[in-house]
Fold this protein.
Amino acid sequence: MADVWLGFFVWTGPNRSAAQAARQKGTENFAIIAAAGLPWSTSLASSCGLAFLLGFLSTVRPGAFVQSLKHPASSAALALCLMAVLGVFWADGISWAERFRGLTPVAKLLGIPILIYYFSQSDRGCYVLYAFVASCVILMLYSWVVLYWPGLSIHYKSDQPGVPVKNYIDQSQGFAFCAFALAAVAFDGSRRHRRALAISAAIIAAALLANLAFVNVSRTALVYCPVLAVFFAYRYLGRTHFWIACLALVVTIAGLWISSSNLQHKVSAAFSEYRAAQKEAGTTSVGQRLELWNKSIELFKTAPVIGHGTGSAKPLLTRDIPKQADSTANTSGNPHNQTLLFAIQWGLLGVLALYAMWGVHLLTFRGEGVVAWIGLVAVVQNILSSLFNSHLSDFYQGWLYVLAVGIAAGTITRTAAPQQ
């Protein structure tokens, strides 16, 4: 209560420093709560994000913040946001409301420089990860329960067994991120002879991956999970052990395929939908994606350099795709590919800006340590999942990326500061 009093009511006088520290701690707490709420509630995460922004504005030191914007990870995100703002002015044939709505998916990237600044001065970034992992573990246990008792789901979906809230794509993204983050924690704990931590992290990571294998998994996760496993083996194992681990990965995937009806269904359904799409376009999820990709490429060709402007993707896709009664492709206006979404709106300029940001963020986490690995997992996962979805622009995956990249980069900056 003393911290609350200081944070809200003390702005001058001898207790000003203590009040500033209390406000900073409270602001960090909102980031922790937002991470815990992200797997469950969009509203809770949004509200805490707004509270964090207000806390940031009440504690920021303008000079230090401007200096922190020179961080490459911050500059790359800001450059992409600036491009989107400028794209508002060359958009043609769409309303100003649609143009400003087009800024919303990109605006979340402004959180990266704010988080880098904040957690380059705070040692509590790890608590944000703890909160997110704990929340995902609770959700994982809950998903096993609703797999057998669907009536206990918060939002029951008959076509998504074992998914009590949100959807299986979001759930898979969070579980996979936590599993590979904890794999590094387990390895690091074992190397430091912290057996309890290593064993606990390994068990939780295995449980999260088991949930993906036997309960429900997105098809996108079937792409990025093996790649992340290879990256992990390359980063943490020697050359000989790396090839042994790759062989073990192949054997494990084969074993899971044989034993998991969930994996068999997901993979076989993808091929079945593709074959169906060859006969009648737009009748399946895969068919709708192919239809949208083809249309997106045609739209890109008509404005290849700077695109059609911010907010143009949805109006153009929904306007030009033939109406079908049962096709969600006609209402979403989402090409389900991050590169194509940027190409439609900002052309080659947007694609280069996107890949430049991803490249800078990859280089940011090329160092050693658990924190660098966590940042790398977030970037690689987002790049690969954005091949089949617009995950950087989506709420859950986009904010997971912003939180992980911003806090990890800020933490690395803080730990490296004494050496400079």
In short: The longest helix spans residues 338-364. Residues 222 and 267 are 9 Å apart (CA to CA). Residues 4-10, 324-330 have pLDDT under 50 and may be disordered. DSSP finds 19 helices and no strands in the chain.
